[in-house]
Amino acid sequence: MKKKVLLFLISVLTFCLGIFCFAACNVESGGGRSLAFRTLTRDGTQVYGKVSNDTDSFSFASEIAVTGGVTYSVASDRAGAKEVSKDSVALSVGDNIFYVLEKENAEIVETYRVTIRRRPMYTVTIDTGCEIDVETQIVEEDGYATLPSISRDGYQLDG
Questions:
Q1: What pTM was computed for the model?
Q2: Which CATH number fits the domain 32-118, given the four candidates 1.25.40, 2.60.40, 1.10.3470, 3.40.50?
Q3: Best CA proximity match to 115, nearest among 42, 57, 35
Q4: What is the mean pLDDT of residues 80-90?
């Protein structure tokens, strides 16, 4: 009889401990609910990313992953009054600012300021300091111009 009571108490204690651990883990991790950005860089509530100049639209639907009861909307203003499509937003050259509003039970729990930079193009002109003409190059931001192949008797191009 004592063994049965002892086993029963150990079982109840183990069950209660398991429930307590499960509840504590859910409180710490937000209850299994989250919003994550797949390719954009997040620093707190600031989110940033760059796309090539030939990218003229961006999809939040393929960028954002949600779990649990989290939903989100995308807006062009911090308050969320001017909602935009999650599927495709137009991008202009330079910084494009959007706001992602994370929601639980239709209530906003976090607002992320998202900057998507569409890289601008720059014209690179090389002045040789002599009568040799070098063709101008169009280079995307963060890109490099290519070294021109020019020659002149008695001279060497160092860089």
A1: 0.70
A2: 2.60.40
A3: 42
A4: 93
